[in-house]
Structure formats: C-alpha cells, structure tokens
Amino acid sequence: MRQRRSECPDEVADGRKTEQTMRAKIKRALTVATRGMVAGGLLMAGVVAAAAQPLTVVELFTSQGCSSCPPANANLIKLKDRPDVLALSFAVTYWDYLGWKDTFGRPEYTERQVTYEPALGRSGPFTPQMVVNGRADTVGNRLSDVEALIAKDKPASGPVLSLANAKAAIGPGKAPAGGADVWLVHYRAGIVDVPVGRGENSGHTLPHANVVHALTRLGTWTGEATTLPLPKAGDGLSTAVLVQAPQGGPILAAAAD
C-alpha cells in the first residue's frame, strides 16, 4: 500500500515561492504580449486607414503662353500638399502659336482636355481649367471654387487600387459598360520654375507644380481583379495610376507612389 509522503515546512515554503514566481513571470509575459498586440493593431489600423483614404484627382490644364494661367499654377501649388488630393499639371499646346512653345506641352494632354469637354458641358477647351475627378470643372484661378468642388465631390466608387513592386493591383468591382481605362501618369512631384522668353508671359518666370511628363494607357479594367506591370519612371519622376470611365468619364480610383 502506497503511503502519502510527509513534507517538511521548508519544502512547502519553497514550493509556494516557486509557484508565486512562475505566476508573476506568466503575468508579465501576458502583459507584454497584450501591449504588443494592441500596438500592432493600432499600427495596422493606421496603415489600412491611410491606404483606404481616397484621392481626389485635380487636373490643371495650363499653358506657359497663357497670361491667365499663372494664378492657376499658384493654386495648384497650394493644393499639391493636401494628403487627400492628387494634383497634376497638364500643359496644352493650342496657345503655342502666340510666340512661345510650352516646354512641357504635348498633343496627348490637349487631347485629354478636349475629350473631357462634352461631358462637362463645355463647347471647347480653355485655360486655365481645373477638372476634379473627371466629374466637374471650373476656372483654375479661382481657388475657392476648386476647393468647393473637392469638398462636395462624391467618394470614389471604384475598385481598390494599389501600387507596389512595379505593378498596379486593381481589385474587383462594378466596371462601366465596356470597361474602364487604366492610365499611367509619370510626373515630377514638387515645383519647377520656367523662364518664359516670348509670348504673353514674356520676361516672367512661371512656377509649375507636379508637371506631367508622360501619359500612357495601360489597359482596361473590366471589373475583375487585375494586375498590370508598371513601366519604370524616368529619373526623378513619380508614378500615378488612374482608373477612369472611358471618353473622359469619372475617375473611379487613383493611387500614387
């Protein structure tokens, strides 16, 4: 028959101390783990919130040969640092005949502006014109009007769009009939000053913000999850991608690196 072993007082005390020590260590470990989980959760929530913040795309159609454009350039400079705005400057070419060929002007930028006009209710292009998310426009030298359009613009209803590892990832969603255009924009973030030697702004140095250097149609988004490769930007250029309804329709999603 097995008998219960008797224990001396010292052994009992030592056992209790060991148990208390172990409990204290476990409590400390749980506290540290909990704090780490909370901090990690807050960090992840911040990342998700930042990624989820929709961008309002403000496009300025401007020209170095237009005497009305410098105030609009200055307004875009004020808008470019807003975290909720992707400000882009497109230089058009139809004022080049006035004596100064815009140093950033390209026919495709003029074509983009012309494509916008019917849906915006305009009879033709003009400068300086600011277009907000492809849905509304105003004269670019009236900052209060532009800010009002940004404030009342509806949040983008398009797919989730992200740029990483030289690829644009577009999530699933409802696409326009026939699909949406996916545009790649390479632009120089920041401000560049251009001295103008002839034309209406002769003798002036004009500041420009976020000047577009290339506009390329990457493909079509049909509503299914899609990944498109991104050509490398030139030295010092930033990348933006726009998912847009065709024929100058609303911009459904936008992302920039």
List strands and helices in order, with pairings.
Blueprint: H1 9-52, E1 56-62, H2 70-79, E2 85-91, H3 107-120, E3 129-132, E4 136-139, H4 143-152, E5 161-164, E6 167-170, E7 180-195, E8 205-221, E9 226-229, E10 238-244, E11 251-256
Parallel strand pairs: 1-2
Antiparallel strand pairs: 1-3, 3-4, 5-6, 6-9, 7-8, 7-10, 10-11
Instruction: Briefly note the structural class of the backbone.
Output: alpha+beta
User: Sheet with the most strands?
Assistant: 4 strands, mixed
Walk across the major sheet and give the strand order: 2-1-3-4
Radius of gyration: 29 Å
Listing every helix as H and every strand as E from the N terminus to the C terminus, the arrangement reads HEHEHEEHEEEEEEE
Strand content: 25-35%
- Spans of at least 5 consecutive residues whose pLDDT stays below 50 are 1-15, 36-51
Question: What's the shape?
Answer: globular
Query: What is the CA-CA span between the terminal residues?
Result: 79 Å
Q: Helix proportion of residues, in percent?
A: 25-40%
Total separate domains: 2
| Tally of separate helices | 4
Strand element count: 11
Mean pLDDT: 86
